[in-house]
Amino acid sequence: MREHYQIRVHIIEARGLRGPDGNKGFSVNPRTKIRILAGEGATLVDQSQYTRKADATNSVFWDEVRMFTVDLSRDQFNSGKMEVAVEDVGMFSNTTIGSAFFDLTTVYDRGYHEIFGEWVALMSQAKGAAVQGFVRLSLTVLREGDTPKLHQAHELDDVDPPEGQLSMPMPGLEVEAYQLVVRIIRAEVNPFGIAKPKMQVRVRFGSTEVKSRISPPRYEHNFYDELRMPIYMPTLTDRIRIDILDTGNILGPVQLADASLSFLSLAADPMETGWLNMYGVRKLAPSVLGSIGRTEDESASDTAYCARMLMFATAYQPPPEEHLSVMSLPKLFSKTELDALQPREQVYMLRCDLYDAIGLPAGPFDSFYVVAALGPHEQKSSYCSMNEGVVHFESSSPGKEGYYEQLEDIKLEDIKVSMPTDTDQHFDVFIHVYASTPMGDRRLGYLRYSTAALMRSVDDPDGMFPFDRSLGAPTPRWIYLLPDPVELEHLEMASCMLQFSLVFGLDKEVNTMGRKRRKIPKLRPYTLYANIFAATGLSPANDNGLADPYVRVSLAGVTERTQTIEASLNPM
To answer: Which of 312, 343, 374 is the last residue of a domain?
Structure first.
């Protein structure tokens, strides 16, 4: 879901701007460029505005305000940046004197969602650690409904300008150099049915980035690369972005997954070698989006674990003799180190037995089937028709007619998939119910479970899970289906139910559980009688302080309702 943001940038003045020779003088024609950058690829938001140009000066008073109005998703806002750069405007080209970067979230999280009247040092990666000048500004980031703070004009007079001339820092400002080291050992991405990517790891801090080597087309690769980057403090941004790119796309690199680390945390405490979970920024296939009930705009923030990376990261202050530069180096490991770094995985198993379904909307020629999915692995049941309002999922295996369906994989066993031992890095399990109609197939509803919940011994008095591991064997239960968002106008909430059992765990554990086929029983007719007498204390539903109530009773997809009593809060 996108939200409405207003970004206000007040560029007040600049002092001590360095000329092209690195010294002071009146050889620069400065103007300020404000750039808002959020998202990537098809979701990229890139807007720029400029102040007026000043002629032949290294100190200029602008006092100009620029406004940006943008609609951003949660991921776009969290990754959004604001660049304030002072340029030297030439006759044929413009040269950046220096720039400062701000995270939108950093500004928004400050008091009153603003940075007010502060002097900011301008830095240039190409010119090293020297300060290239100062700009005084105010920044405000407001979400729809936020109220900005009103300031008096004299408040700006209370902030002292930087002392000295060009190379003098702001009062109390000491620029410190750090070396960021990120060691990439191994990266893995979930396939989701897409082509094998040519992976590349990118590390970004502000406008500086460094990339690893490119892997062959595969879903996992051992990089053994060490990425180095100098970082100069203080800075208003703290987040180190780590991205996995697919460089095999004909239109250019596509970002698959990302994660972020705190630079200040790394400087205080290095990240030991371990797995880093990375989450959804890549554009998922339509079939996957449908399986999790998301639109393309929502898929980035709500998809489950998309990738993981085995890595080490640290930030330290280097000795004076160490050369600081952006570089990517191969990291050599001994055989003992490599053996210790190899991911340890186990084989897990998903077992699903289907029984009955009720309340499914059906036409005279419709049939139904169920798909159990675990990441890219899925199993499909036989097509079954409705009989007196009930769908029996009957096995189509030879000699098993009249028995309930037990889903199996292509090896005539249960679904087996090699997964990390950390259940937070597992795929989610989906159970989809489809209707096959003369106009095509459509999904009626679905259920979603995390593998961590499926592996626990759950006390489930409400019957929300189709299993109970404490019983030692799967027990079928009736579960309400979640409606497909695309089909909301055709399917009421909690009107369809599926009876099934589901077990997930290590293959050696699942194999020890009992699994026997059950015969489809003959239907027995039942009748529900409901006598509705009166209601009292109902809440008003219209401007007259009254309501038009009626009672609805539903069972097994069949709904009956009483007559409507008009204009009453205590109907009889």
So the answer is: 343
